[in-house]
Amino acid sequence: MIDHMTFGVTDFVRSTAFYDQAFAPLGVKRLFEVPLEHTGGVKVCGYGDDRAWFWLAEEKATKGLLHIALRAKSHAAVDAFHAAALRAGGTDNGAPGPRPHYDAHYYGAFILDPDGHNIEAVCHAAP
């Protein structure tokens, strides 16, 4: 089981503005910002629902093909994530819809964040 993940972003303000909006429909919000004196001056914050498990740090941007998928409670939440992420400046990387090649009830949407990371919301419930 994954406890948490952290990745670097190029522009902390731009990225936090994006994730604040994109994650809201999934019930994920910014919960914590680490005081700069504890990070060597690097801006760091954590997102989550009941605890912070998704962390951003404004330092060397994570490179490569990063893909994370967040579980959504409903198809409507997947749709709302996609719309909110587009409004927040994300780029469509796969409109909301069924993906039966993954499993019979897989319903997901994909967005590229401001640094090009592939962020997905997925619901495994039957329609």
Tell me briefly what this model is.
With 127 residues, this protein is an alpha/beta fold. The chain has helices spanning 12-23, 75-87; strands spanning 5-8, 29-33, 44-48, 52-57, 67-71, 91-98, 107-112, 118-123.
What does this structure look like?
- The chain has helices at residues 12-23, 75-87; strands spanning 5-8, 29-33, 44-48, 52-57, 67-71, 91-98, 107-112, 118-123.
- It has 127 residues and is α/β, with parallel strands linked by helices.
- It has one domain: Roll (2,3-Dihydroxybiphenyl 1,2-Dioxygenase, domain 1), CATH 3.10.180.
- The longest helix is centred in the middle third of the chain and has 13 residues, at 75-87.
- It is globular.
- The two termini are 27 Å apart.
- The model has no long low-confidence stretch (mean pLDDT 94).
Can you tell me the residue ranges where pLDDT is under 50 for at least 5 consecutive residues? Answer: none
Mean pLDDT equals 94
Q: What is the radius of gyration? A: 15 Å
Count of alpha/pi helices: 2
Identify the CATH homologous superfamily: 2,3-Dihydroxybiphenyl 1,2-Dioxygenase, domain 1
Counted beta strands: 8
Number of domains: 1
Jot down its keywords:
127 residues; alpha/beta; 2,3-Dihydroxybiphenyl 1,2-Dioxygenase, domain 1; 4-stranded mixed sheet; 2 helices; 20% helix; 35% strand
List the helices and strands and how they pair.
Blueprint: E1 5-8, H1 12-23, E2 29-33, E3 44-48, E4 52-57, E5 67-71, H2 75-87, E6 91-98, E7 107-112, E8 118-123
Parallel strand pairs: 1-4, 5-8
Antiparallel strand pairs: 2-3, 3-4, 6-7, 7-8
